Amino acid sequence: IGYPEIRFMMRLTGSLILIGSVSLFSLAADEVGTVKQPKANHKKHLDIIKVFNTSRNLWLYRRTESDEFEVVDGNWKIGFLERCIFFKKINISTSNYYFWHRTEWNGSRLSSLWMGTFVENGEKQPLSMLVSDLEEEDPTPFMNMTLRYTEIGNHSCSVFSVTRLEPECQEDCEMYVRNHNGSIEPTEGCRQSFETICKNRTSYLIYDKSCRNKKKKIKQKDP
């Protein structure tokens, strides 16, 4: 969990208290099983721009970071459940990706303006991007996303390695799914790739069918 998420929490509680310490506790999980090694996604098929260049919502379906957290400060403690996260494209170029990051914390829906800056890495097409929250007073990257797998052709499901740019943060895995033929479900290749890339890690289901019914009711901050 990073600073943008902490800011979301404080907006929900309506508090101006500065959090002196944040304790994170995993409260629920479903285990990732062992599967056969999927066929590798050759790097020539891995183009992060093509994954994000869609007018459809890009849903965070599953990840290795817990969906439940507790914020502790002094004598008070508040638990949070995060659900229904998706990216919504505003604009994209060969350099940057501007998008809404939309999420739900304890039933309250929130929206923030984020920007991804694509990182040159010696390949013909970028595989990574640095993410900044443009609603911060001094936006600086807080997260790096690297594409590890995508469905060839339609990019309906993709797997990323995600690293928070904070001390002692471990690398996490995230699976993103587009609406494909009326369904928001990962492909078998995507499932197997996630389980292989994120081997021996607990994962958490972030998306459920009720999320699609809530997307039009999301709150945005005043400009």
From TrEMBL:
The keyword Membrane does not apply. Keywords: Signal. Gene3D superfamilies: 2.40.128.20. Residues 1-24 form the signal peptide. This is Putative lipocalin-2 1. It comes from Amblyomma cajennense. The lineage of its organism: Eukaryota, Metazoa, Ecdysozoa, Arthropoda, Chelicerata.
